[in-house]
Amino acid sequence: MAQPLVIVIGNEKGGAGKSTLAIHIATGLLHAGKKVAILDLDLRQRSMERFFANRAIWVAANNQDLPMPFVPDMGDGKALARATPEEQLARFEAAYAVAQAVSEVILIDTPGGDTTLSRAAHARADQIVTPMNDSFVDFDLLGQVDPVTLELQKPSIYSESVWEARKERAIKEGRHATIDWLVVTNRLQGTHARNRDRLEERMGKLAKRVGFRVGPGLRERVIYRELFPFGLTVADLSNEVRPVSVTMSHVSARQELRGLMADMGLQDALSPLTAAA
């Protein structure tokens, strides 16, 4: 079997929507017919793992058939969070090896911070997807701006982390080894603001400087949250799977997910969704 594609959802700031993005990308890939393995490195919360556990329960209770990812066993997350970095890394390496053997895509959700496991995951990435809110608070982890002029000064800590991951990858696999980095603006509000124009301009400058692409993420929509308890996303909705009434907002959300996967260069196999009359 060919080496799986490794996608890392990363950002050292919490609250940017990493897990939301991860579960939507994973379900989109599953519906595209891919064999997906997931690794949730946010050891205490494990939102992505809980999502798919909810999914298994909902599917069984409603006699439905939905695709599921493979979840390598890393043991009790809370206990592992208290373990030494060496033990954490050994557990990750073992789970990663199992995922390599059975999947076409490994999707890794990372915590909002710089950890041993997060660094190990980034160094293995073929693609890093970084969600950020439409805010200079989130941008500060990517690049620093002058407090008076707001002009871009230099890359910040997370950009440096990605640079280190790229360097480690090149050392191990040769100078032609690359990591594609996509930064997506997440949870956009419907109204336009002058702050967004300022932010987009700095994003464009930083993208050229440190080497990432900029794309749209997922807007701030209630539907992304309302489907979570069921273990479902807009990718799952169909004539048979409709735990909530389908509206035009759900249709638009499906289009957003299609657009995100297209920007990632992934196969887009989500079928059109029609709102109920």
Question: Could you explain the architecture of this structure?
Answer:
Helices cover 43% and strands 14% of the residues. It has helices at 18-31, 47-61, 77-81, 85-102, 116-124, 136-139, 157-173, 194-210, 222-226, 248-263; strands at 5-9, 36-40, 105-109, 127-133, 143-145, 152-155, 180-186, 213-216. The strands form 2 sheets. The protein has a 6-stranded parallel β-sheet with strand order 2-3-1-4-7-8, sandwiched between helices. Strands 5-6 form a two-stranded antiparallel ribbon. It starts with a strand and ends in a 14-residue tail after the last helix.
List keywords for this structure.
277 residues, 6-stranded parallel β-sheet, 10 helices, 14% strand, globular, disordered C terminus
